[in-house]
Every structure is written in C-alpha cells, then in structure tokens.
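User: If you would, consider this record:
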Amino acid sequence: MAQISILGCGWLGFPLAKALVHNGFLVKGSTTSTEKVSILKSAGIEPFIVQLEEEKISESVADFLAHSQILIVNIPPKLRGNSTENFVAKIATLLPFIEKSTVEKVLFVSSTSVYGEDNEFVTEDTPLNPDTEGGRQLVIVESLLQKNTHFETTILRFGGLIGEDRNPVRFLSGRENIENPDAPINLIHQDDCIGSIEKIIALNSWNEIFNAVAPFHPSRKEYYTQKATDLNLALPKFAASNSIAGKTILNDKLIKYLQYSFIKPRL
C-alpha cells in the first residue's frame, strides 16, 4: 500500500488522514502545533511539525516527504481580514523539496473561488476569473503544480466547506440585510471532501481537475432560512431580491469520470 503525506492536518486533513489509515495506507501528517503531535500519533498517523513560510520551511519537511508516493497539499491561503500572506511564495518554497523526494503524485486542495462570480454555470473548462486575492493566488499555485514535470498533479476545487460542526448559517444567524439572497449555494460536506479524495487515489486519477460541490443549489435565502430553522437559530434576514444571480458550480465530471456518489447530496 502506498504511503501518503498530508500537508495540513486540520479540520479536513485530520479526518482525511484517519480515513486513509483505516483504508490501510501509511500516513504522515503535518501540523504546526506541538500539542497536536500526540493526537495524530494516537490516530495511527506519523506526525511532523512543519512550518511553511514565504522564504523558508522547516527542516523536517524532507523527512515528512520521505518514502511517500502521494502528497496531499491541504493548506488554504490565509488572506482573510488583515492577513496579506504570499501563498504563492510559500508553495514555491515547498516545490524543490517535493522535486527531490519520492513523491510521484500531488493532490492540491483548491477552491471554486478561482472562477469568480461572473459565470452562470461553471465547469472545469470555464475560464478562470477570480475576484478575490485568495482566488488569484490559488490560480497561480495550480499552474505552478500542474506545469511541474517532476510529479503528476490533480486539482480538486471544493465549494464552501461544511460539516456537522461547521455551517455558515451560524455566522449569518440573526444578521440583517444579507446580500445576494437569490444566489445559489455551492457547498460540500466534509464527508464528501474525504470521499472524493479517496476516490481519486483509488482510481489513480492524476493530471485532472475536478469541481467538488454537492448537487444541491437552492438560493442562499431558501437554504440558510431553512437551516436556521432546523438548528433552532435566529433567522437570518436577507436584503430585497436583486439581479445578482451568482454562479452554479457543476460537478458532472466528478460524478461521471470518478463514478462518485455523494454521501451528503442535500446538505
């Protein structure tokens, strides 16, 4: 069974690592927290402290990558609020270490933010037109990885991430005048994030790009109002309907090419 290194064992990476261990893989997992080392180890994951910065990286990265055939890069750009991280520089710093390692396949966890909001229906062939700094940097990183001839890269573009402990409605609850009530949601449950990654590895689907979004696109107003009701939260109040439709991310390739069946199709 192949050995897999997961760069970033956080909200998604940690349960993913546990699932891969359960499936019989040898898994190395990185964290930036010394407190999490014992947690990873107790789950059967070989832990590594890896600090990835714009101009340097922890010496432990060589051992973290050693003997692994697959690397999953699961560290999103930190560009919200006042953060101005150069995510491109961080990945560029990592690249020489991947090139010198045994890694043959890279799975990069990206985002549908690379498409921007101008398109009505979006497939993997839709031209990239990000309207956020995070999206712009993800586009560059995707290209850096895909053009590298030392390994094969598959890009997995997730929609908004949700889970049993994570849903945007908790931040929207009780708020007023929320914009874009008619825009469709483009979300994916943590279980399907893990499931789609497992499927890519199982089918050896490399040098590909996949959109990964649940096949469920009610309007923001409809979905979050119902979700707040279900969770007994204060209802969010949306602005009057407007003409901004927003994009609908299509997942046809994921379903057909990988024969993937969603675990949580209706969220």
User: Anything to note?
Assistant: The mean pLDDT is 94. The chain is about 30% helix and 20% strand. The first helix runs from residue 13 to 22.
